[in-house]
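User: Predict the full complex structure for these chains.
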Amino acid sequence: MTDMAVPGVVDAAKPFDRARALAAFRLGDQTFYWVTRICALTVLFILGGIILSLIIGAWPAMQAFGLEFLVTRRWAPQVSPSPVLGALGPIYGTLVTSFIAMLIAVPVGIGIAIFLTELCPPVLRRPVGIAIELLAGIPSIIYGMWGFFVLAPFMTNHVQPVMIGLFEGVPVLGTIFGGPPSYLSLFNAALVLAIMILPFITAISRDVFTTVPPMLKESAYGLGCTTWEVVNNVVIPFTRVGVIGGIMLALGRALGETMAVTFIIGNSFQINGSIFAPGTTISAAIASEFAEASGLHQSALILLGLLLFVLTFIVLASARIMLARLERKAGN
Amino acid sequence: MDLSKIFRVAVLAATAATASVGAQAADITGAGATFPFPIYSKWADAYKTETSNGLNYQSIGSGAGIKQIQAKTVTFGASDAPLTSEQLAKDGLAQWPMVMGAIVMVVNLEGMKSNELVLDGKTLGDIYLGNIKTWNDAAIKKLNPSLNLPSAAITVVRRSDGSGTSFNFTDYLAKVNGDWKSKVGVGQAVEWPVGVGAKGNEGVAGNVSQTKNSIGYVEYAYAKQNNLTYAAMINAAGKTVKPSIAAFQAAASNADWANAPGFYQILTNQPGEASWPITAATFILMYKQPVDKDASNEALKFFAWAYEKGGKMAEELDYIPMPASVVKLVKDTWSKDIQTK
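Assistant: Here is the predicted structure of the two-chain assembly.
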């Protein structure tokens, strides 16, 4: 056992060569380590660079408008002597459309996930699951076109008048669902957004639902629970954090969605209490005005971008934290 | 001896290189107004078949066009809102009118045919101010006593991007509606009190054709190409006029190009019984000292060709070609102001 069967190799492996070979390996490892490390750092560097350039670009607007930027309703880039620009309209539109979209997409998305994991016959599970995932892959411009040509006319001619009639004269609700119906409106944009974010909520909810230990569910069924009781008392409580994480990811997408929304929101900076009125979102405002903006106007648009960046960053960071907490819990 | 030979080869090679670059860079690049896009693309097509030189024109809106030429990313910019001579001097730009056209009001009303609906400037301003909210408003009824107008709310469609069409439209409204002048004013992008914003003339045309009970303003060619219903207007002389090339020409004939520095002319609300009220010229912007002189010369060749042979094509699309006297003035400006060598 002391001598290898291949004498030539043993002879060659002198102590000196061995050290050299090992050094070569170490060099390779080191290089690989640094190359990958630089790749990773580049991402951080780019992220930092984006934030920094946004801040630099937004600086003139920050100086000119200060915190009032957040509460000013007027958006008048060509007023003399200097433009009056306020972000309240776009912020309002962004929050309202995202809120309505979440209101619709969360229950439907979780409902689909429950159906897929708990109730769906195995034959249907894969096709439905794949169809939902394909929804996530459709380019947003397609949603915009479909929304503009199909969904918006349908909602405006058939759904909005009914809702307007239903709530007419009721305080508060009468304003929120106030007429006239409009093709290009916050409501229609929110509907398209809801469909766009649905796959995110469904996919993540489904994944976290499958992490529920079968034993817990079996025990609950064994005690005579109905499917609803199992879902409501076992599955959802066990995965709550994960589901919320998925919802936050979807919210991040809804806040930043540009193309589809620009198509159907109407690009109006006016704030009207009604959800059937045209409005604008932060990203839609940037998309429709950036090409010809200059000076303070451009800076204000960059500031809008920075606001959106911060907003989505907070939302996504909290989503990550929640998902991480779930993983820790699952690990225990 | 050797040196001179090398030198000669080098010169030859350089000439060949420039020549081949020149041949490759035949595509003239321009960007700007959507208002003249139908005629520019028609001209470009004809020019390409005739000379095999292409024109790449991006209709991104006048505001963006001005920005592109200032950033020197294109050889020429196009705008329907003329720059003042101070603005031109600041950037070292030359400006001239290329063609004239008209803005018409398009509506989407069930059963309505073109020219049936009559509007005047005051009423139009009130619609765009949001003071008139429904189609059966007394002011509209008064102008159209015989029409059966719906009680539906008016959906106002306007541009969301910086637009020369908007500039001419708001200029017209400011001239005929005092409220508009004091509350909104004139500009490529104003603070619109009501309405939905759409990108480009094509965006407004698309939105109006989609949306029932809507009204919008577009260049005439867009109204015709999209089969939109357009309205007749009451002009400055108090006469009802229908959009037609004769009415546009009547308005355009009032323009005094010879005495306008930098060809700054706005043609809205012109006097004359036959004049269409919202007529506009569309302008080309180019550097007096272009960075790329070959490209600049190619562009000038194209414009000269368009003046010379494009008139008929322009009329086919209901644009009004520039009169020969103006073309002469423009050509004088070229030879005087624009460096070709």
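Chain A touches chain B through 30 residues (CB under 8 Å).
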